[in-house]
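Customer escalation, tier 2.

The customer says the design service returned an amino acid string that "doesn't look like it belongs to this structure." They asked us to rerun it and document both sides in this ticket. The original structure tokens are below, unchanged.
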């Protein structure tokens, strides 16, 4: 029987869970973020997620963060992430059997990433609304062949603390990550994220 979550899960979404973030400097004008999340609740049920985000990416709306690589643990999250926001999700398996570590394998059973993580220090409340709107507006190129972009301004709250996420292997995300030293590591609990309906930003008409 098909999962009921595959039938319909349009935006907006509210998700709850916990996660870890490592922020890297790629070059003076660009940063990258590695984000690992365990969603305990979402419109398509619980799922795990690992993504690589870069900012700013040039779009017709200006420089914005954009998700460059992402894998999730369920088919429903793949289907509706792609359909709602043009997020280029693929399915993978997440193995949490070793405490403080996760191994991710792709749909063919090949190693995708191996991460270790730990949190330290007190929790403090954080709110996405404290960031400039452009920093939390994710821009994704349409996945259906159109030249348009979808812009989604994310909101949310969490409890945050200092954390460390060590990349032991991430060939499919970005092969140089194990050798890079992150600028910042943050752990999140009591995460509550809101993904609204995206705004369509048509590509400029360049004429004949």
């Amino acid at each position: 029987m098909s999962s009921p979550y595959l039938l319909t899960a349009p935006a907006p979404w509210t998700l709850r869970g916990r996660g870890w973030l490592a922020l890297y400097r790629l070059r003076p004008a660009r940063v990258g973020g590695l984000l690992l999340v365990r969603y305990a609740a979402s419109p398509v049920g619980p799922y795990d997620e690992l993504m690589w985000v870069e900012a700013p990416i040039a779009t017709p709306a200006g420089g914005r963060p954009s998700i460059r690589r992402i894998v999730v643990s369920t088919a429903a999250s793949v289907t509706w992430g792609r359909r709602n926001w043009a997020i280029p999700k693929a399915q993978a398996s997440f193995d949490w059997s070793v405490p403080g570590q996760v191994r991710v394998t792709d749909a063919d059973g090949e190693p995708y990433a191996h991460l270790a993580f730990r949190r330290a220090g007190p929790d403090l409340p954080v709110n996405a609304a404290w960031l400039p709107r452009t920093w939390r507006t994710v821009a994704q190129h349409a996945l259906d062949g159109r030249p348009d972009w979808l812009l989604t301004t994310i909101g949310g709250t969490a409890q945050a603390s200092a954390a460390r996420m060590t990349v032991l292997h991430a060939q499919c995300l970005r092969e140089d990550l194990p050798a890079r030293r992150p600028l910042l590591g943050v752990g999140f609990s009591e995460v509550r994220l809101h993904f609204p309906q995206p705004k369509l930003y048509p590509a400029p008409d360049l004429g004949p």
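Tier 2 assessment: The sequence is consistent with the input. DSSP finds one helix and twelve strands in the chain. The helical segments are 75-85. Sent an explanation to the customer and offered a walkthrough call.
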